[in-house]
Prior knowledge:
Layout lengths: L8 E7 L5 H9 L3 E7 L4 E3 L4 E3 L2 H9 L3 E2 L6 H9 L4 E5 L7 H4 L6 E5 L11 H7 L4 E8 L9 E8 L6 H24 L15 E2 L15 H10 L6 E5 L2 E11 L10 E5 L2 E5 L4 E8 L6 E2 H7 L17 E2 L10
Parallel strand pairs: 1-2, 1-6, 2-5, 6-7
Antiparallel strand pairs: 3-4, 7-8, 8-9, 10-17, 11-12, 12-15, 13-14, 14-15, 15-16
Helix pairs in contact: 1-6, 5-7
Amino acid sequence: MPLPLAPSHRVILLGSDEIALAAFTVVRSLPEVEIVGVYSQPDRPSGRGQEVKSNPVASWARIEGLALFQPEKLTPEHAQELGRMRIDLGVVMAYGQMLKDDFLAATRLGFVNFHGSILPALRGATPVEGALASGFQVTGISLQQVVRRLDAGPLHASAELKIAEGEGRTALRARLGLLAGELARNSLPGILSGESRPVAQDESKVTYTRRLTREDAALDFNATASELVARIHALEGWPGSAFIHAGLTIKVGAASAGESGAVSSPGTILSADRDGVVVACRQGVLVMTKLQRPTAKMLPTGEFLAGYPLSVGEVLPSSPMPALVGPIPFSRPPKS
């Protein structure tokens, strides 16, 4: 009996976030593909106890017995090392580092990247959050050839996904991760064979997203209720969404938009009971149904109000909400 043929495509994976796992699992399962190694961010302190933990991709690589590389910063030595590995293609999703020219040139077919939007819209670090905050009804995954400019490479393929009503960041990211897996199965064979010909992006339609900061949690009741709900969905988890009351930061875990015939200043509490805390906005009302005070649990409003009353007629302060999406690249926020 003849021996099985060795895999003909040597592939390196680069990723750090859970959203990449479905695509990476598919890449590993493709016929004639050998995963030579995985590049991921270093293990870092996490949580209240600051215990050093691996990110999801690094954990997956260890479980699968794959060679794992976790440099704090990619250097020319890493590019040389990659060249010695004789890699055919690098596959990237949510890695967390920019790839420089020497690294990009170290593989036979370069690198391709799964990006969480339909490019050229929403280039940058937070395309999922940008789509939700902007009220998009459809988003998706793009598979692009990596170039030195931010998410500007030509496109091999893309796949659209309808955003469900009331969907937040966690659920949308999970579905986009699965969509990236489907796109990997359908499109990567053509890239590995050299048959795929990427198409340049339309630069006239480019928009950009930016990295999030803690300050993005603040809510501005001078916005419309629909805008606030979209923002709350987009920032689910970290940094979340919050308002200040009596000097305390109150987090909002769930909310919806409603209508009201009352004319009140934005931020005015119109009602507060087990059905929700209703706050006037520039247009419509924000109905907050889950709230959390510092050091306590997120609670339905009925339970929250039993231990922390909010009075009808109070006016909650508003804070500016910096845009998450813009027509030009954002400057990097200062390091905290």
